[in-house]
Structures are given as structure tokens and as C-alpha cells.
Amino acid sequence: MRIIVIPKYPWVMALIGFLLSCAGAWVHSLFTSPLLLPVDPRITGIALFVIGGGLAALGVYKARKMKYKRIKTTAAIFAGLALVVIAAAAIYFYGAYSARNITISSGGAQLAGTLYLPRGLGPHPTAVFIHGTTDRLRSQGQVYADYLARRGVGVFVYDKRGRGGSTGSAEFTKLNELAADAVQCYRYLQSTGGIDSSE
């Protein structure tokens, strides 16, 4: 009797490797800021993907002497798992939330922003991502918007006036004007369907 079972059943090794690779791809796709998680999912995902790919390759190599029937069964298992992973990926990337660009008028400026709303029954609590006095664009808030939208919280991110897709002057903008822009965005969202204005 063999103590190590996996080499006797190489397809098990290949299957474990395949699942690890899929898990690595999913973890890497989270693309969450390290500030929100103790471990950077991008590095963890790559590590899992590489380890899983190595195990899968080793399992396939050891399975080269398997009988035709076993190979056929193994191929069917892998094909089924591949379909499941593809379906899960489609749901994860395209079914979690919607993102649409909107423009809000505020104090003579047109503020260009993107509204991320979770799919499903609403209304959803929604946050306004404020850029502060820096020159950050709304694209830099996408990481946080993605993280929150996948967890049921809507997010609106917008370009500071005079930056990105927003009009207006950015050179002599006062703090009260920037604050008024944020308030105007909040008021706009209160009148938008699918948003819980009480939270």
C-alpha cells in the first residue's frame, strides 16, 4: 500500500492544481487596495495561480500512462469545471453591479462622474467619494467603488471641477466651491432611483 496517494491518481493532482489556479485568478481579480485587506490579493492570486498551474502540469504529465477511459473521464471533469468557472467569472465581472457615467451641474461647472450601483433589489445605500483638494481623478477611486459595490453599497465618484471630464476653473477654486460641489452631488443622488437616501 502506498503512503502517498496523489501520485497513484495523477488526475487528482491535476484537479487540485486546476482549482488552485482558478482560486488564484479569482483572488487576483478582487483588485482590492492593500489598505482594506491585510494581504495584497494581487500577489496572493499570482502565487496561487503559479502553484496551481505547476501542480496541474505535473498531474497531466503523470497521467500520460493512464488508460483511455480514465483520460476521457478526466477530460470530462475538467470540461465541466471549466464551464463552471467561466459562468462564475461572467457573473462576478458582469453581474455584480452596474456603472454609468452621469454629469451634474454645480455652480456653473459640469461635474463628470460615474455611479456604481449593486444589481438586485434596491434601494441601496450610496456613498459620494470626495477627492479633497488634490488633483485626483475619479479613476483613482475605482478600486474603492468596486470593493463597496460588490458588497451592496453604491458609490459615486467624480472628477474635481476643472479636472478630467469636469468643466470649470481649477486654478482659483475655493474650498466652499468644492464643498458645494459635493453637496450638489449628494442632492442629485437623493433624486436618483435605486438609491436609499436615508443612509
Summarize the structure.
With 199 residues, the chain is α/β, with parallel strands linked by helices. The protein folds into 2 domains: 6-94; 97-196, Alpha/Beta hydrolase fold, catalytic domain (Rossmann fold, 3-Layer(aba) Sandwich). The chain is built from 5 helices and 5 strands, in the order αααβββαβαβ.
What is the strand content?
Answer: 15-25%
Can you tell me the CATH architecture of the largest domain? Answer: 3-Layer(aba) Sandwich
What count of domains describes the coordinates? 2
> How much helix, percentage-wise, in residues?
40-55%
| Main pleated-sheet profile | 5 strands, mixed
Q: What's the shape?
A: elongated
CATH topology-level fold name of the largest domain: Rossmann fold
CATH homologous superfamily grouping of the largest domain: Alpha/Beta hydrolase fold, catalytic domain
Count the helices. How many?
5
Mean pLDDT: 72
Order of neighbouring strands in the sheet with most strands: 1-2-4-3-5
Write down the secondary-structure element order: HHHEEEHEHE
Give the oligomer, counting copies of the same chain as homo and different chains as hetero: single chain
**The CATH C-level class name of the largest domain:** Alpha Beta
Distance between the termini: 63 Å
